């Protein structure tokens, strides 16, 4: 599918300012190319002319013609019936067929497929399944074909409707979407390497961590005064510096900062510690999202590419997350963190060569350094910049406003760990000072 | 408080005359509302061109080319205390012919930024 | 012409707005303001549009399910839109919970149920009839008048089967049971409106702003994308640019966040929308100030 | 449309920059702005070639010891923190881009700009007196010639001669003169009455001061102490008598964030132009555009979504990353207040923690592969 429509749809400005020409919708319905051509410009305001009036009339007519087309459904040959169960609030397909079953529903041992409610509504809207209710009158099977309106009356809350909308929105764009903590099949976890059979390790770790915290808490109180005093003595005198870096070094310890986990190990540590911490449940992670992939297996899922949290900005109950809420979300994230590989590999290399003293490895590292010598400082600097810009853990926040959704990516980043001060090259340092140094 | 207002007017006056190059600039007190009034050095970019006059908005644009600037102080770390009530008050003191007020926001970073304020609804410029 | 007829018909009745997602009868305990107002009937959607309410289509379009540009029924309204339509008398609220629907379905007597079945069967029969006629017409033209070896009005078993298989089973937008079963149910419209407004202070203020702007002729749509509560259009958004980014309503002595005003007006200038600050005065009326970047400084 | 905003900004940022070729300019910048902070490091030479060299180094080192607090500041009744000395303004700008010229976009170059606007610093300098002088002499010349024409015309008329050619000649002369005068006025200058007040001999009086943001002033009296004012004096003048921590909370939050970025090497400047609190430059405005727009928030703060979305769109429209910088306080407010009262600012600052989040619009159609 082409990217065209999305660039329009998600680029708010254009989406609003360009004419939504529904005659094009008839085109995409006709052939399946899904290419949406450029749309025309709108007018500034009504000018009372008949010409403008008839253009508006036509535009509305086309739109309503499209809306009136009976195009939700299937021919009998392809019909798939999904039976809604009011008590369980799910639907069941007795004879699943069609490609959608690869990425929708939980298969049961008897060959049927259970659809969660949002999956059910989505497939009904697409016309992929017929929504049926078995009225079971007088013990007899009595199938009744529901309408879309009937199906919507089963929504239990605004939150559920919003979740469904976000689900459908992503599905229409081709993403694979399942609820986070979906019980069916197997799903990889970032933490699984440690969790599986290594609970002992984890417990030991937690214990040690607890003791450490206890110790630091006690020691901190009396160490703190000491440290402050020493600092007061040394820091605010006109200290002389032998390099510009030293000036920064002298002031960059003042403000503490949060450094997000950057490696598998640190991830586990933060995750492990937080297992005991109370989790704010206001912001649940609604869905795991995978990029489109034909070889996706729902029974054996690799790490999702994204996870998504939904916020309805007009709901009386909900507030935009504050820092604590964000932290709660980050702690519970479990998806593909693109930064892990890079950082882990870099770290492993260092520890390996340090610990084992492996001559070969060190030689290898040396030769690599040698090769990079030319732009070493530059690339180090560039790498720091890249780390800040790309950040670490992230999730998507879908903000519902009426029936419109905007999606924001929230990413932990860390300016604190990356010192980026400029170190003048020797050539410039040796350059003679300009006259400005001499004051009047 | 009054001297503070005077000092604030001076900042905006100097900024308008010597950075924005306004002419015929003067400070007028409409009772307790001090206004820096003057002529911009060129047509303000937000106005429509004469030949493309936007009839519905044109009555808002002063015919003598004069703009009325109300200075307001904005600290990064203090509340401004500025509300719609403040705006009501300012407009109540201004002569009726003044449809457009310019807020001259004096920031504590050394800059002054200017925003037009209209009572009621105003359409955006066409182009 | 057909369009005009149905148009006139639609205008003659009140549109039906269904409140989805919450149990209203729960009384004060539940948050009535978090129900979602939704319309399913295209005629109703066309009708409220003539009254200046566009809403947002939220359903997947059956014929083009792989995109988010053109969506279909149902139509979701902002609560303000729904309240205004009902208050002015262009629409009525309806509220149906799933279990009630099923109850009413189960409560249908055999006669009614049979009628539904007959309707469906009729639809199938009609489609089949149409397909047969079509098929025969094609056969005729294909074979020409001279061919008499095969009678042209006979369809063999296989073709008949194929035709039956290709009959389209449509999922209809609107319910066949909900409206008839509700017709006699009288809901106190004013009470629902009050209930919804009572529980949400912010909505209460914003509704005054919405109402005022609507009565001035503006169409509103949700405005978070442009940094506001509403985006206001001088006419049908299908044809006209939006003019205003309207902020959340406030009391008139509430402090203005100048930094927020600055970036709002800056953004407004770049997207050609005036940044509008609405306030509610002592009389409970909405008043406005418009802000735009002066273009210098 | 956001592009147009970005363009607008680009124009502003470009205005006032010297027109130099890229490489030349960048080299010049490297030299001019080699110090990121107003305290200059004194590198220890790697080889001591001569005993005298060591002596000179120590002397230099000692000299500078004594001159750290060198910048005078004045705080006026509006709370504006001003540096008025020419050299000091330039020094603070060139050593880390501190402050903003009150009549400039950033670098305090109003005087030079005005000189060039009034054409007072051209190579063949036309000063005001010169202009009036030229104009007066021109006028005189014109009057003289016109008098000659008048005399001749009278003479011819008395003789009863009507010379069409002569009248045409006169007309042309007069027109010519007027054009000349207009042209002179036009391209010599458009001096307003307001400008006349500025001119003092061959120069323009300096109206502009360098204004420091409160956080810059704190940084320059606390972290890199170059202001003559002490931190305590400064703090008291910023907030006279805070009754509760609420009164100083925002200032402290702003400072903590400012110090954080400055101390990691970023050039931090006001973000007001883009509706955010700070802009982060790698080195400074002459080198490249700002890369980040920072919004400082309290850890418990939650605003309506529109607050985030409009700020993010303005910052994003100028092709900058939008950062939510949360400031968390680590000890109770009463304790913080106590530290303030005792002027233990260092300890006060140390009891805050920074958390950063990138906030970016996510487009479903662009993240599928």
TrEMBL record, chain A:
One of its GO terms (cellular component) is tRNA-intron endonuclease complex. Signal peptide: none annotated. GO terms for biological process: tRNA-type intron splice site recognition and cleavage. Residues 354-373 are annotated as: Disordered. Residues 64-131 form the tRNA-splicing endonuclease subunit Sen54 N-terminal domain. The keyword Cell membrane does not apply. Keywords: tRNA processing. This is KLLA0E23849p. It comes from Kluyveromyces lactis (strain ATCC 8585 / CBS 2359 / DSM 70799 / NBRC 1267 / NRRL Y-1140 / WM37).
TrEMBL record, chain B:
Signal peptide: none annotated. Keywords: tRNA processing. Gene3D superfamilies: 3.40.1350.10. Residues 12-127 form the tRNA-splicing endonuclease subunit Sen15 domain. The keyword Transport does not apply. One of its GO terms (molecular function) is tRNA-intron lyase activity. GO terms for biological process: tRNA-type intron splice site recognition and cleavage. Residues 41-65 are annotated as: Disordered. GO terms for cellular component: tRNA-intron endonuclease complex. It holds the Pfam family Sen15. It comes from the Eukaryota. Belongs to the SEN15 family. This is KLLA0F26334p. It comes from Kluyveromyces lactis (strain ATCC 8585 / CBS 2359 / DSM 70799 / NBRC 1267 / NRRL Y-1140 / WM37). The lineage of its organism: Eukaryota, Fungi, Dikarya, Ascomycota, Saccharomycotina.
TrEMBL record, chain C:
Its EC number is 4.6.1.16. Signal peptide: none annotated. It is an enzyme of class 4 (lyase). Gene3D superfamilies: 3.40.1350.10. Residues 204-287 form the tRNA intron endonuclease catalytic domain. Pfam families: tRNA_int_endo (PF01974), TSEN34_N (PF26577). Heterotetramer composed of SEN2, SEN15, SEN34 and SEN54. Interacts directly with SEN15. This is tRNA-splicing endonuclease subunit Sen34. It comes from Kluyveromyces lactis (strain ATCC 8585 / CBS 2359 / DSM 70799 / NBRC 1267 / NRRL Y-1140 / WM37) (Yeast). The lineage of its organism: Eukaryota, Fungi, Dikarya, Ascomycota, Saccharomycotina.
From TrEMBL, chain D:
Gene3D superfamilies: 3.40.1350.10. It is an enzyme of class 4 (lyase). Keywords: Lyase, tRNA processing. Heterotetramer composed of SEN2, SEN15, SEN34 and SEN54. Interacts directly with SEN54. Belongs to the tRNA-intron endonuclease family. Constitutes one of the two catalytic subunit of the tRNA-splicing endonuclease complex, a complex responsible for identification and cleavage of the splice sites in pre-tRNA. It cleaves pre-tRNA at the 5'- and 3'-splice sites to release the intron. The products are an intron and two tRNA half-molecules bearing 2',3'-cyclic phosphate and 5'-OH termini. There are no conserved sequences at the splice sites, but the intron is invariably located at the same site in the gene, placing the splice sites an invariant distance from the constant structural features of the tRNA body. This is tRNA-splicing endonuclease subunit Sen2. It comes from Kluyveromyces lactis (strain ATCC 8585 / CBS 2359 / DSM 70799 / NBRC 1267 / NRRL Y-1140 / WM37) (Yeast). The lineage of its organism: Eukaryota, Fungi, Dikarya, Ascomycota, Saccharomycotina.
């Amino acid at each position: 599918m082409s990217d065209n429509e999305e660039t329009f749809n998600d680029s708010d400005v254009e989406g609003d300012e360009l004419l939504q020409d529904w005659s094009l919708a008839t085109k995409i319905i006709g052939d399946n190319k899904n290419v949406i051509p450029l749309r025309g410009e709108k007018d500034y305001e009504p000018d009372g002319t008949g010409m403008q009036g008839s253009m508006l009339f036509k535009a509305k007519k086309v739109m309503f013609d499209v809306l009136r087309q009976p195009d939700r459904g299937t021919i009998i040959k392809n019909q798939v019936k999904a039976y809604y169960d009011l008590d369980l609030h799910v639907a069941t397909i007795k004879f699943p067929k069609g490609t959608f079953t690869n990425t929708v529903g939980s298969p049961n041992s008897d060959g049927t497929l259970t659809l969660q409610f949002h999956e059910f509504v989505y497939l009904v809207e697409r016309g992929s399944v017929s929504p049926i209710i078995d009225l079971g009158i007088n013990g007899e099977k009595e199938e009744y074909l529901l309408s879309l309106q009937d199906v919507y009356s089963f929504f239990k809350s605004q939150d559920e409707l919003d979740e469904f909308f976000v689900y459908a929105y992503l599905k229409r764009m081709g993403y694979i979407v399942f609820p986070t903590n979906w019980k069916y099949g197997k799903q990889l976890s970032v933490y699984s390497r440690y969790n599986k059979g290594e609970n002992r390790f984890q417990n030991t770790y937690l214990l040690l961590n607890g003791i450490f915290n206890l110790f630091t808490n006690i020691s901190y109180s009396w160490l703190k005064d000491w440290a402050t005093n020493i600092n007061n003595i040394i820091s605010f005198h006109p200290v002389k510096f032998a390099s510009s870096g030293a000036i920064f070094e002298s002031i960059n310890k003042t403000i503490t900062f949060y450094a997000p986990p950057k490696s598998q190990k640190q991830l586990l540590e933060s995750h492990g510690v937080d297992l005991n911490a109370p989790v704010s449940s206001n912001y649940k992670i609604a869905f795991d999202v995978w990029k489109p992939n034909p070889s996706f297996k729902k029974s054996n899922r690799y790490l999702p590419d994204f996870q998504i949290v939904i916020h309805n900005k007009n709901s009386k109950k909900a507030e935009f997350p504050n820092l604590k809420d964000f932290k709660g979300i980050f702690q519970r994230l479990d998806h593909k963190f693109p930064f892990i590989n890079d950082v882990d590999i870099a770290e492993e290399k260092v520890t390996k060569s340090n610990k084992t003293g492996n001559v070969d490895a060190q030689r290898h590292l040396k030769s690599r350094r040698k090769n990079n010598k030319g732009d070493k400082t530059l690339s180090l600097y560039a790498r720091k910049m890249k780390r800040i810009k790309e950040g670490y853990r992230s999730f998507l926040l879908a903000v519902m406003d009426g029936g419109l959704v905007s999606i924001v990516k929230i990413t932990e980043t860390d300016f604190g760990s990356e010192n980026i001060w400029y170190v003048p090259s020797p050539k410039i340092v040796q350059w003679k000072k300009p006259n400005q140094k001499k004051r009047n | 408080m009054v001297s503070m207002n005077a000092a604030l007017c001076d900042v905006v006056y100097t900024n308008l005359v010597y950075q924005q190059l306004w002419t015929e600039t003067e400070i007028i007190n409409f009772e307790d509302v001090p206004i820096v009034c003057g002529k911009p050095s060129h047509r303000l970019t937000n106005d429509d061109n004469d030949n493309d006059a936007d009839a519905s908005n044109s009555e808002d644009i002063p015919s003598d080319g004069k703009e009325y600037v109300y200075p307001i102080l904005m600290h990064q770390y203090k509340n401004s205390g500025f509300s719609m009530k403040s705006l009501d008050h300012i407009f109540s003191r201004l002569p009726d012919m003044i449809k457009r007020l310019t807020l001259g926001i004096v920031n504590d970073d050394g800059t002054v930024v200017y925003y037009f304020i209209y009572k009621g609804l105003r359409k955006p410029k066409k182009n | 012409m057909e369009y005009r007829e149905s148009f006139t018909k639609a205008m003659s009745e009140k549109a039906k707005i269904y409140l989805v997602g919450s149990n209203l009868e729960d009384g004060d305990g539940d948050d009535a303001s978090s129900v979602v107002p939704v319309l399913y009937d295209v005629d109703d959607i066309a009708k409220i549009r003539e009254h200046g309410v566009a809403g947002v289509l939220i359903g997947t379009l059956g014929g083009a399910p792989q995109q988010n540009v053109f969506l279909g029924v149902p139509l979701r309204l902002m609560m303000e839109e729904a309240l205004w339509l009902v208050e002015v008398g262009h629409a009525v609220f309806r509220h149906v919970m799933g279990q009630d629907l099923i109850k009413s379905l189960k409560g249908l007597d055999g006669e009614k149920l049979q009628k539904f079945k007959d309707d469906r069967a009729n639809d199938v029969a009609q489609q089949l009839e149409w397909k047969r006629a079509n098929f025969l017409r094609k056969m005729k033209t294909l074979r020409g008048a001279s061919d008499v070896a095969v009678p042209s009005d006979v369809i063999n078993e296989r073709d008949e089967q194929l035709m039956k298989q290709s009959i389209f089973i449509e999922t209809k937008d609107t319910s066949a049971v909900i409206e008839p079963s509700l017709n006699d149910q009288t809901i106190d419209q004013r009470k629902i409106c009050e209930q919804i407004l009572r529980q949400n202070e912010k909505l209460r203020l914003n509704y005054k702003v919405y109402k005022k702007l609507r009565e001035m002729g503006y169409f509103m749509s949700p405005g978070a994308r442009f940094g506001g509560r509403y985006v206001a259009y001088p006419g049908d958004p299908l044809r006209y640019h939006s003019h205003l980014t309207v902020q959340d309503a406030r009391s008139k002595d509430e402090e203005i966040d100048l930094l927020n005003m600055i970036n709002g007006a800056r953004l407004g200038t770049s997207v050609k929308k005036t940044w509008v600050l609405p306030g509610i005065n002592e009389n409970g009326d909405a008043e406005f100030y418009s802000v735009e970047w002066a273009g210098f400084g | 449309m956001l592009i147009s905003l970005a363009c607008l900004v680009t124009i502003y940022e470009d205005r006032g920059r010297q027109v130099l070729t890229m490489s030349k300019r960048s080299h010049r910048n490297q030299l001019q702005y080699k110090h990121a902070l107003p305290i200059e490091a004194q590198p220890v030479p790697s080889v001591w070639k001569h005993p005298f060299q060591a002596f000179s180094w120590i002397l230099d080192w000692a000299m500078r010891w004594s001159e750290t607090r060198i910048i005078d500041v004045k705080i006026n009744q509006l709370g504006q923190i001003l540096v008025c000395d020419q050299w000091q303004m330039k020094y603070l700008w060139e050593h880390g881009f501190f402050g903003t010229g009150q009549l400039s976009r950033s670098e305090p170059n109003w005087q030079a700009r005005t000189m060039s606007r009034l054409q007072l610093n051209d190579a063949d300098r036309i000063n005001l007196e010169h202009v009036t002088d030229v104009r007066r002499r021109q006028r005189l010349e014109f009057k003289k010639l016109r008098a000659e024409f008048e005399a001749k015309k009278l003479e011819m008329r008395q003789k009863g001669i009507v010379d069409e050619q002569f009248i045409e000649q006169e007309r042309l002369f007069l027109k010519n003169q007027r054009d000349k005068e207009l042209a002179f006025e036009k391209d010599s200058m458009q001096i307003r009455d307001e400008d006349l007040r500025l001119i003092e001999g061959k120069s323009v009086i300096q109206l502009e001061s360098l204004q420091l943001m409160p956080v810059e002033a704190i940084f320059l009296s606390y972290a890199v102490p170059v202001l003559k004012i002490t931190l305590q004096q400064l703090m008291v003048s910023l907030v006279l008598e805070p009754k509760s921590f609420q009164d100083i909370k925002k200032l402290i939050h702003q400072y903590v964030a400012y110090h954080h970025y400055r101390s990691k090497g970023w050039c931090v400047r006001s973000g007001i132009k883009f509706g955010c609190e700070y802009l982060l430059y790698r080195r400074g405005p002459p080198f490249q555009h700002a890369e980040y727009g920072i919004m400082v928030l309290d850890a418990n703060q939650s605003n309506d979504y529109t607050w985030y979305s409009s700020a993010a769109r303005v910052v994003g429209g100028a092709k900058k990353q939008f950062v939510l910088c949360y400031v968390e306080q680590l000890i109770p407010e009463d304790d913080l207040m106590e530290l303030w009262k005792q002027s233990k600012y260092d300890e006060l600052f140390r009891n805050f923690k920074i958390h950063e989040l990138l906030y970016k619009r996510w487009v479903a159609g662009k993240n599928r592969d």
